[in-house]
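Escalated from tier 1: pyridoxal-5'-phosphate holo job.
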Amino acid sequence: MTTRIYLDWNATAPMDPAAADAMAEAARTWANPSSVHVEGRRAKALLEDCRERIASALGAFPQQVVFTSGGTEAIGLALNGAQAKRRLVLATEHAAVLAAAPDAAVVPVDANGLAHLPALEAGDLLAVQHANNETGVIQPVAAIVEAAHAVGARVVCDAVQTAGKLPLPPADFVAVSAHKLGGPPGVGALVVRCADDFAAVQKGGGQERGYRGGTENLVGIAGFAAAIEARRADTGWLDRAGKLRDGMEARLAALGAEIVAASAPRLPTTSMIRMPGVPAATQLIRFDMAGIAVSSGSACSSGKVGASHVLAAMGMAASAALEVIRVSLGWTTTAADIDAFCAAWETLAAARKAA
Ligand code: PLP
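Tier 2 regenerated the structure:
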């Protein structure tokens, strides 16, 4: 089998070996953490140890960490568990946010994907993502939270793409997910900094201090803890990835690529690249055949390439948006991976020009 090059880290990061080891070890502590016997208490001790380690890596307090089945559930818990007079969501939010608050007022963004905030009022609950999963554009969450708190509004932040990369934003509710940072899919957490007027959505046996019913996924949580610690231990990886990303963008721009939101603050691991004249669907197939996994920013669970609501909200014409792919890097991405991608990009763009 030829060696594959994985440049789709924003979809899911490869599982960190430390996470896989921690999960194998935790599988031996299989009891229910709510049971009072020795086995149960052992499982509870592991659960609380993981909670402390995850909280410490995130810069939160352990009692603020509510484990969930992932980012989607954490977002739903925040948006539907917190009382609000009015809900507002950015137009570029992930589908998990848009679907959790279908009646929310939609906040527009500018051509760089940055929020145009309306006047907020007391009792508002605003969802603002930390970094966009398609473009990597980073919202000024700290300033937005300050403005919201000044009028008595609260902020939910989807930090699924930034947890393990950037410091946790200072929002009232912050959603994180393990599988974007080297842990397993199917586990995440909501950091609850303001528990006033906040209650469980998924009710049950009173787990997670009553905020989320259901026996905790201890094996997954152990993988989450190991992965987030691995990210914190390697402080240089984000800079390394950022240099590779910047070099790639400069090289492709010289070949005629258009980089989406190039001048906006962005996650250093993410790039959205338009190859004029070549549909994204064609690009994805060609890169896949060349051994390179990338995605269209708008890839959805059906695997189809559709129009991106994120690019549409930024004012990009649908015809141009359908020629954009997302390249996302991670901690094991090498200069050779990026060279191979740039070479494949050049070949494809040259073939289009010759056609
Ligand atoms: N929010 C963002 C920005 C994401 O990228 C994702 C994952 O694709 C989610 C939320 C959903 O997270 P999960 O897959 O853990 O439910």
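The two ends are 31 Å apart (CA to CA).
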